[in-house]
Design a protein that fits this description.
Blueprint: E1 3-6, H1 34-43, E2 50-56, H2 64-75, E3 79-84, E4 97-103, E5 111-115, E6 121-122, E7 127-128, H3 131-143, E8 151-154, H4 156-161, H5 183-214, H6 218-231
Parallel strand pairs: 1-2, 3-5
Antiparallel strand pairs: 2-4, 3-4, 5-8, 6-7
């Protein structure tokens, strides 16, 4: 075949078998058939043919048998591009996925990385890849264009130095630094808040004092005194000792 598109079930169980499709690369684990589907499709490609397959991110970095398969594929230049897709774009699963582009009998061993995981529109039940997001991925891949925090062409030696780990953040730095804290603005905000608190306390104190003057009930007066102490409000009027009573709280 000249071109193949695959979207197999993710990390399915399978019954391991040995045949020509897997002999040059190894056999995928019983609990994760991702590379079994991968190698099955790749075995059907003609020389110069292209294949695109959607799989979970784990195929990019898991070790053991999958690490050996990945290493063999990279050593022969089979993997042309890795495109990280947004999470929750498929029905039935919310896990983030990756689109892997393969080319049969390719001389170049470089790998082109695209991190499109942040380009989507939030839908009701899932995230949506809009036309503009797809167009950006397509043009970037077609032009093999390096874009800061989005895409990068990585030479084989760098992939080898990373022990054939294809985890996208190793090659495309998407880290966003936080804006520096303006200490002057923070200090000014604290001063303003402190002034507002003092103003509120003063207003509360005036209200409580007015209530004491207008109401001679000893029980209410003592309750107001207790309230002022709790809020640190200065007292203008003392409760007479003969008016003191015990409050049940």
């Amino acid at each position: 075949m000249n071109s193949i598109l695959m979207n197999p079930p993710f990390s399915a169980n399978w019954e391991q078998i040995e045949d020509g499709r897997f002999s040059s690369y190894g056999i995928a684990p019983k609990s994760k058939a991702d590379f079994a589907f991968f190698l099955h499709g790749y075995s059907k490609l003609k020389s110069g043919g292209t294949m695109a397959i959607v799989l979970p991110h784990g195929v990019l970095f898991r070790g053991a048998a999958e690490g050996k398969i990945r290493k063999a594929l990279l050593e022969e230049g089979a993997i042309k591009a890795i495109i990280g897709l947004p999470a929750n774009i498929f029905y039935g699963t919310s896990i983030p996925t990756v689109l892997i582009i393969l080319k049969k009998d390719r001389e170049d061993k470089s790998v082109f990385f695209i991190d499109a995981s942040k380009d989507f529109e939030k839908g009701k039940n899932k995230n949506l890849l809009k036309d503009e997001h797809i167009q950006k991925i397509f043009l970037t891949y077609q032009e093999q264009k390096g874009i800061e925090k989005y895409s990068r062409l990585v030479e084989y030696d760098e992939v080898k130095d990373n022990d054939f780990n294809l985890n996208i953040p190793r090659y495309v730095d998407t880290f966003e630094e936080e804006d520096p804290i303006d200490m002057g603005a923070v200090a000014l905000e604290i001063m303003q808040l402190d002034a507002e608190i003092k103003k509120s306390e003063k207003e509360l104190g005036s209200m409580l004092n007015e209530m004491e003057v207008s109401n001679g009930d000893p029980k209410l007066i003592q309750a107001l005194e207790l309230t002022k102490k709790m809020f640190g409000v200065k007292t203008d009027k003392k409760v007479n000792s003969e008016d003191q009573i015990t409050l049940e709280i």
